[in-house]
Design a protein that fits this description.
Elements lengths: L1 E3 L7 E3 L29 E2 L12 E2 L4 E2 L14 E3 L10 H8 L9 E4 L8 E4 L10
Antiparallel strand pairs: 1-2, 3-4, 4-5, 6-7, 7-8
């Protein structure tokens, strides 16, 4: 379970399912990161400036909130992506190659996260995320 927010009034919880999608990433990006997430995608809509205190981060393609990626301090936590990820040019080139190696096996309408358990990616079905009708 991922809990976002500092107290009961702002806490948002998501159940993260750990399926059997092997994590292909070498974590060769900056600070041992994957170097690829939704903010590197052409469909990402973010705040005018960080931190995302108003929690406006969303996906224009899937019309859903990406608040799961935003920590209590308004900054991104973790690295998330979906099968439809399209690089704006800022993602780690190695991570793009690694994503392409598994893209055909990824499920539709599923958000994937790095740093999962037992060598697998985290998986969250889009139905568990809030729809964002403002995009």
């Amino acid at each position: 379970m991922i809990k976002l927010g500092d107290d009961k009034s702002t806490a948002i919880c998501y159940t993260v399912i750990y399926m059997a999608t092997k994590d292909p990433f070498s974590y060769s990006g900056r600070w041992d990161s994957v170097g690829l997430d939704c903010s590197d995608c052409t469909n990402f809509i973010g705040p005018q400036q960080w931190p995302d205190e108003k929690r406006v981060s969303s996906c224009s393609l899937h019309r859903l909130s990406l608040v799961i990626q935003i920590g209590a301090n308004g900054y991104k936590e973790g690295e998330w992506f979906c099968k439809d990820f399209r690089n704006v040019g800022s993602a780690n080139p190695a991570a793009i190659e690694e994503l392409e190696s598994i893209r055909s096996s990824l499920l539709e309408r599923t958000l994937y996260g790095a740093y999962g358990k037992d060598g697998n990616l985290k998986e969250v079905d889009f139905t568990k995320l809030a729809s964002d009708t403002s995009v």
